[in-house]
């Protein structure tokens, strides 16, 4: 059984998709970009963008009754791989070193709304 997860504490979907779907104890979170859900505006600069994306992901996890400790897989899209070190430090600051998820990071030529970063996650209920 699939349950759609949605929260006002993360940006609303800007297309035909859900913020997240929970199916058989697995939460599939759509890629999050650095939109501040309170204002609907993009934040700018890789540091602020990464923090906003992680806050958006955290809000969706919380709505599903989970946390970053439940995340088993992350996919990170960067417009510029030169931003990797900054992004990586901020990303790691939200996670527990004892439960880092699997991950890949790829550079892409363009992201929605021309942002610098997008992250999607898969989490599993304990």
TrEMBL record:
<dbReference type="InterPro" id="IPR035959">
    <property type="entry name" value="RutC-like_sf"/>
</dbReference>
<dbReference type="Pfam" id="PF01042">
    <property type="entry name" value="Ribonuc_L-PSP"/>
</dbReference>
<dbReference type="InterPro" id="IPR006175">
    <property type="entry name" value="YjgF/YER057c/UK114"/>
</dbReference>
<protein>
    <submittedName>
        <fullName>2-iminobutanoate/2-iminopropanoate deaminase</fullName>
    </submittedName>
</protein>
<dbReference type="InterPro" id="IPR006056">
    <property type="entry name" value="RidA"/>
</dbReference>
<comment type="similarity">
    <text>Belongs to the RutC family.</text>
</comment>
<dbReference type="GO" id="GO:0005829">
    <property type="term" value="C:cytosol"/>
</dbReference>
<dbReference type="GO" id="GO:0019239">
    <property type="term" value="F:deaminase activity"/>
</dbReference>
């Amino acid at each position: 059984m699939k349950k759609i997860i949605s929260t006002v504490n993360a940006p609303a979907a800007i297309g035909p998709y859900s913020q997240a779907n929970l199916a058989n104890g697995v939460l599939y979170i759509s890629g999050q970009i650095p939109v501040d859900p309170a204002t609907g505006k993009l934040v700018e600069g890789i540091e602020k963008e990464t923090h906003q994306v992680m806050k958006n992901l955290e809000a969706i996890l919380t709505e599903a009754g989970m946390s970053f400790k439940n995340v088993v897989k992350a996919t990170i899209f960067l417009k510029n791989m030169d931003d990797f070190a900054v992004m990586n430090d901020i990303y790691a600051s939200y996670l527990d070193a004892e439960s880092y998820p699997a991950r890949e990071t790829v550079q892409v030529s363009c992201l929605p709304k021309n942002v610098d970063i997008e992250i999607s996650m898969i989490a599993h209920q304990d």
